[in-house]
Fold each of these.
Amino acid sequence: MNLNEKLQKYNEWVFRMSAYRMALSIIAIDKLTVAPEAGADYRDKRTAFLAGELFSVQTDPEMAQLLNELRTEESLDGETKKAVELYAKMVHDTVCIPKDEFVASEELMNASYNAWLEAKMKNDYSIFEPYLKQVIEIMKKRYEYRGSDMPLYDQMLDDYEPGMNREKYDAFFGALKERLVPLIKKVTEAEQIDESFLHQEFDKADQKKYMDQILAYLHFDPSWGYQNETEHPFTDGTCSNDMRTTTKYLKDNVVSAILSTVHEVGHATYQHDVDERYDGTILAAGISSGMHESQSRLFENYLARTGAFWEANYDGLQKQFPQQLGNVSCEQFVNALNIARPSLIRTEADELTYPMHILIRYEIEKGLFDGSVSTEGLDRTWDDMYEKYLGVRSKTASAGILQDVHWSGGSFGYFPTYALGSAFAAQFVRKMRQEVDVDEALRSGHFEICVNWLKEHIHKYGCRYDADEIMKMATGEPFNVNYYLDYLEDKYTKLYKL
Amino acid sequence: MNLNEKLQKYNEWVFRMSAYRMALSIIAIDKLTVAPEAGADYRDKRTAFLAGELFSVQTDPEMAQLLNELRTEESLDGETKKAVELYAKMVHDTVCIPKDEFVASEELMNASYNAWLEAKMKNDYSIFEPYLKQVIEIMKKRYEYRGSDMPLYDQMLDDYEPGMNREKYDAFFGALKERLVPLIKKVTEAEQIDESFLHQEFDKADQKKYMDQILAYLHFDPSWGYQNETEHPFTDGTCSNDMRTTTKYLKDNVVSAILSTVHEVGHATYQHDVDERYDGTILAAGISSGMHESQSRLFENYLARTGAFWEANYDGLQKQFPQQLGNVSCEQFVNALNIARPSLIRTEADELTYPMHILIRYEIEKGLFDGSVSTEGLDRTWDDMYEKYLGVRSKTASAGILQDVHWSGGSFGYFPTYALGSAFAAQFVRKMRQEVDVDEALRSGHFEICVNWLKEHIHKYGCRYDADEIMKMATGEPFNVNYYLDYLEDKYTKLYKL
């Protein structure tokens, strides 16, 4: 085969994978949004089969060989070279797992998800615990097949955020602990900010009506994006021009759905902005979790919690809820949006205490894989750690260990990227504010000015470059956790007049 | 291979097909309901690839051989025997067409569909005519490859309704013509019934709220069924416990969405009630068009247009729309639901004139394939037949010959099943009314009594038995068109006081 023939074969292989991935994405979105529960077993079995077909394509030994050959080709352009490298790692990491084990583990993940859902509804950790245990065992097995020297949990961390490991995360979370624990203490002891008006009764249908304005403000265009409702908001999609997000409306909270929407639209906008030529390839699909989360949190915390954002949007909200918000000023509203108060539910947590929720999950995951933490009694372990770091304790498993879906699907090593993303975002925003008048853009309804800066410096690359390279290109220096901590200290010192 | 090995191989093959079918169903449902338009090109290319994968599985020559061997096995149980027969026919009918011809004909169908769309928009039959001619020629060729002795159009009729042919349809439509043409004439000349109150302004959100009551009344349970909205209502699903329907709300018509919902829920309930053991096999998927349509029309016309149905539901509708319906009695409302009036558009036709729309299409199809009707000037042929049978003449080709999509995709032989379904339904309902107090069930909110009868006598079998066998088992006698005609004569004689 000459190079052209090799590249043709390679492109056909990429296309085949993208077809199965598309099917699996749509099936997953359908499952999470509308698919009737009673059909889950039928669908899950066939979904596992299709995932197995994808697995067969991915692990085609001929392709493993071809990728190795392509890696040595010096005439490849940079994009293809990067994609080939990423595919080669992916193939290696999957080819080592026997197919029947892979299919069995996919089936387990589906059953485990259903068990988690039931456990959460019935508020009973014991329904989920045996599945969690099995999921951990099967994940260990899957990683052991790789034959890597790297400790197992480090491999998981690296999968979600290439280049990260326990050592780096220990340093990262160490810095957070050092500066945030005392800051949270001070905030907790300071004079509290009134936010009771956020928690009146807000008709869900009215919230939905207002959401259309927010989606339009964010330039989340129906031609390429669709929003649905789910218990646990998420973003998925099939290509840059087909992104799906979900949100969740709470009757007694007017900002929860808005902020979750802005968060998910941050994810969706990132994928939408990736160079269209990467559609269907690993350069679009393989963005690190930390980078992804940096953009959703940038949207949510660094843009949608600012006064400028609400100068453009608060009028509309007041008009939608005149009885509840008619006497609340925009400043009062924005201050209320930004209060910090230790709480139980990660997804409802404020910007300051949020990383503590992640710290807890990171320490538990680390323990589950080094053997120092057990799935048995993990609901109590969980509650104890919440008490230790945040001073709060859950009365129910549903608001405790069962609150997150991640572990039911074997996603270990993922949570830490949520905290990392916030810290990435701080550094990106600091630079963006040096180059663009962000507040003026938000105030005047020109959200696209921010999006364009992000697209140009971050989004369009997909994973053409690694996170550390993008960080350097976009901000001119390596990642530095102190920008994040400085930002939080500054913001909360002012807000609480510390 | 011994029999067990053969059966295992067979079952694996059935499962593989069911997995691809499931994916294609979910992708299609997603596309028709929520998928963002800008991603259509990306998705369609990959969907075509997955359809090709299914085609490859279906036409695996090894399986064609295996099916032939299994057909001769005398020890197979009745269900497997029937399924093997149906699969063998399916494989034979596809595998006999050379692949390049198959691809060429699929391309022609696409071009033909686009031409039809353009012709309909521009109201110009001459744009579509050359394609229609080619589609007919290619369909002839495709059927000739089967090498059957049966005349070509008979094969087409048999594909949609096994056991039916021109001789039987001629007798069926002959009887309809004889008794319905004079009945329609009498109804048209009788004093007309007021139905203007159905066409006021009805807020769509309010219609949707009311629909929840109707869906609950019909026992369309969210655990196995989900309803969405689309421009053209449809029913699809992945298994008995996962059925999706859609409806369409019209602002100026309060019953359109309700009746389309009941119709689609009829289809969905049929599939839901098929023996769960048939899930994923041709015994569940291959139900004849006439049988399917018999159940949707039974729900829509024979149940949801009765006084008893509305005795249970009209109160709720009045409460939802007190301004519009407060002064309309239940009897006036039900009478208005049942008016008959010759019109041009099949999908908007009433229960009495509907079969005449089908008769016209049947006579044209028959002529197109025996050479007595030409595609040239077919727009005039169409209009002449509408004038002859219904006394109305279209001023535009769009509301005449171009109104239906079916022929552009080569679906000949399908239309007749629409009329047959209504007639099947009449005979089923007659028997059900002998065994069950249908009106009392409807009146007292026990719709499930009807559903249970249908499930026990019809639905549960899927296509374990052919339509004529089910008809005999359920009603104790062969299909008899006179029950349908008696029903219509009786109903419209009373309604219009003829």
Note: Chain A has a mean pLDDT of 96.
Amino acid sequence: MTYSLAIHGGAGTILRSQITQEDEVKYNHALHDALVAGNDVLIKGGNAVEAVAASVVSLENCPLFNAGKGSVFSNEWKHEMDASIMDGNNLQAGAVSMLHNVKNPVLLAKEIMQNSEHVYLCGEGAERYARQQGLSFEPDEYFFTHLRKEQLEEALRDNKIMLDHRTAKDRKFGTVGAVARDIHGNIAAATSTGGMTNKKFNRIGDSPIIGAGTYANNHTCAVSCTGHGEYFIRGVVAYDVSCLMEYKGMSLMQACEKVILEKQVKLGGEGGLIAVDNAGNLALIFNSEGMYRGYVTEKKDFKTDIYK
Amino acid sequence: MTYSLAIHGGAGTILRSQITQEDEVKYNHALHDALVAGNDVLIKGGNAVEAVAASVVSLENCPLFNAGKGSVFSNEWKHEMDASIMDGNNLQAGAVSMLHNVKNPVLLAKEIMQNSEHVYLCGEGAERYARQQGLSFEPDEYFFTHLRKEQLEEALRDNKIMLDHRTAKDRKFGTVGAVARDIHGNIAAATSTGGMTNKKFNRIGDSPIIGAGTYANNHTCAVSCTGHGEYFIRGVVAYDVSCLMEYKGMSLMQACEKVILEKQVKLGGEGGLIAVDNAGNLALIFNSEGMYRGYVTEKKDFKTDIYK
């Protein structure tokens, strides 16, 4: 049995012309590191859930991506994080929303999935559960980056709610995620995000929603999305890919293209997804200008990319 | 073109032996009133969204059901309410979680759907949006009922998290919901809940999750669920019914039976759903002992029921 792993670090208006060569190297390095983290699990025969968690933790710990350390600021200068994870082997799932100060939201989602009777916890209650279970917390300063501070200042000036905002013409959907198939034939998916710069009203996007931002089922596929959350929720994107495979007999690639390049485009939803099927085939599909992404299989063919 | 409307007031271990004749009359009256509220909209040519909102408001305002007034108490003696709504005509959706003191959570979900750029708002932020949009608030006393107080006291004594708990042997999934098809051929669904008695950690169930507790699409069906939320989230129940119709060519009844009587039973998920297809056919399906439910079509065939 073979293994495979794909990751993303968000999608949107990511153009070669806007990124310095130095930054490009940094992003590719960070994506590579996240692949190594998941690959280390899979190469030793570890399971898909542990692999996607390891890759997402690596991306959460990197300040370049909008998740964990490096999360964007809400309208109230807070870091409000969401995450979810699903195990395709038993359809178990865990999710968290409106989380503050938990170092790795994806590990809390995993804890909820594996050790609670619940699927989805939120805000203060989720933080209380995290403390009870001994998860790592960090002070506000840990999550702080100058880039995110500048982005909120700019968004406040323009009075705009921005999705990982850079420039007025930019739309970036800051999310990280991973999907994997292990050598035992199990598949899993995980997603994590810091949400939208200048977001108000405790808005929740698709990242913590099982079926929208994350889904995994050994009979079909595992999917992690990154995009304009409202459209991805309305399209129930991750589960739609699974249903097109299970009920329509589509291949993974056909299903992903149908959902992202046809259905989401028609609905108005910009973004993309990564997916793996139960045979280990990978799909990294997006309808935006770019998507930070990468994959590796047991051929050790580490590959990272940013642009179309 | 014909119209039709179905409602539910929760599912679970609802046995004739446990309900007095007096209570039975009260429940049937309340269900009838909720049908009348939606029917009043539909008979005048009103749209499906307004009809499901009217029926759910009627159920939220009735202290017999676990939603709005009459919501159960969380572990911290709070009423934490969730709701969602979806418009099958344009796939617009609105949802709220962890809401306090908003009189009708379903109307806030509708407001978010129709007048914000978001789909899903949560907690304090959602309440701030509700105040800004002029929705009605009520003090804690409004939501108080002696029955719910006794239920929390009993749950605290037994140290159990209970789903609309009555007796140790009881499992009730306190949720209300409505689905409708209007004379213009549009369909819609809405769901609202007070959650679980003695719930901790700000747990969220399927009720506010688009795709799990609520879904509507004019091309297929509108669905509102009531059941053990964790299993309904993992099964992406409402959207699964839609996918089985769209991708597998199943009828509404076939799809609902497949999801509730086969897939959810296999997964371990107790509960039920109400659904309407784009031709106005209705399905009211549950795998539990009972489900408070009712329907009406333009034949004015008002019908309410409780047991199997």
Note: Residues 13 and 289 of chain B are 5 Å apart (CA to CA).
